[in-house]
Amino acid sequence: MEKFYAVMIDMVGSKKMNEADRYISQKHFLKSIKVINYVYANKIKLPMTMSSGDSIQGLFNDVESAYCAYYLIRHLLFPCRIRCGIGVGEINMEIANNIKERNSNINDGLAYHLAKNAIDEAKEYGKEIVIKKGISFDVPLNVLLQEEEMDSFSRASIYALINIISPIADKDFSNSANYLKMVSCFITDISKLYRSKGEKELCKEDLMFSLELKSNRMNSNNFINEENVFNMLKNEILNTFNPISEKQYQEYLMVSERSTTINADTRKIIRNLTGTSSQNINNIILSANMEQLRKKYISKIELLKVIYNKDETEKWRY
After folding, report:
1. I want to staple 81 with a disulfide (CB 3.0 to 4.6 A). Which of 12, 137, 162, 243 is the partner?
2. How many CB atoms lie within 10 A of CB 82?
3. How far, in Å, CA of 87 to CA of 59, rounded?
């Protein structure tokens, strides 16, 4: 029987938000759905849809797309936190094939039941993501999948921007004008947050944060609106970025010191968005081990593919 990968995502703490913040978070959730359904159009069995005001769900054809969708949403919605459950299994094909409306909410099957169990476990134990197939590898792999928390807002916001602007797992869409248009609103919001909140951290942490740099940043704040951000991304990325080659991807997996997942073009864009210096950006990337985190992310994808896309007739020893 064919396996599918049901994804359920909740926004953490949404019920505690005031009405205005909750409305904004729901709008961002809806926009993130559009991004995912565009990016993974060829890898989705049933598109991501809202299942309630603070929950979304969808059905994917492979585990790497399901996991990468969660990872992208995680950064799109920064600084909001999410939790995710992924269930691996069969679905009710009669419902999937005979109902005209492609809505994940009205489908059923083992994949959905496992995804619900997974997200309930994530909520109970304070995990960000849980994947379930009902095999012995579920437990140790879920330990590995938990993301390392950044120890400051400035680092976390820079890391979110990097993973939106230069996603490394999906090599075909990041240099698409449609993708850049769809994510410009998220990038704009994160950049504004960095300039308002991250600046205070830098003033305390970095002795090189000069009055001149602070003045330049304040003067450039008018640049940060969605239209200007999109035009900047379009000019910088569509003209200079090349899709990641298979050779580069394999180098990332080797965790080679010679390979970088955050190239000079990406760092330049982050510098322009945040209004800070190249030195500060490089220091933040280095001190937070972002290269290592990105390479670990790729390794997790490869491990998921080996374990959860494996044919049922093949037996694991564990």
Report:
1. 12
2. 23
3. 9
Q: Let me know whether 269 and 161 are in one domain.
A: yes
10 Å Cβ neighbour count for 278? 12
Q: What are the start-end ranges of the E strands in 129-239?
A: 129-132
Q: Is residue 129 within 8 Å of 146, Cβ to Cβ?
A: yes
Q: Which two tokens stand for residue 170?
A: 């999906």
Show the domain range for 16: 4-147
Other CB atoms within 10 A of residue 30 CB: 13
Q: Which amino acid, one-letter code, is at 217?
A: R
Q: What is the CATH number of the domain that holds 71?
A: 3.30.70.270
User: For 29, how many CA atoms within 13 A lie in the half-sphere containing its CB?
Assistant: 25
Question: How many domains in the chain?
Answer: 2
Query: Which residues neighbour 62 within 8 Å (Cβ) at sequence distance 6 or greater?
Result: 5, 43, 305, 309
d(CA 274, CA 220): 9
- Alpha helical stretches, state H, 171-223: 177-193, 199-205, 211-219
The Cα 142–Cα 161 span in angstroms is: 25
Helices (H) and strands (E) in the chain, counts: 15, 5
pLDDT in tens, the chain (318 residues): 678 999 999 999 877 777 777 788 888 899 999 999 999 999 999 899 988 768 899 999 999 999 999 999 999 999 999 999 999 998 865 555 555 555 555 566 889 999 999 999 999 999 999 999 999 999 999 999 998 888 899 999 999 999 998 876 555 555 588 899 999 999 999 999 999 875 555 444 443 333 334 444 444 555 679 999 999 888 887 766 555 555 655 555 555 555 678 888 889 999 999 998 999 999 999 999 999 999 899 889 989 999 998 654 445 444
Measured between alpha carbons, how far is 288 from 44 in angstroms, rounded to an integer? 33
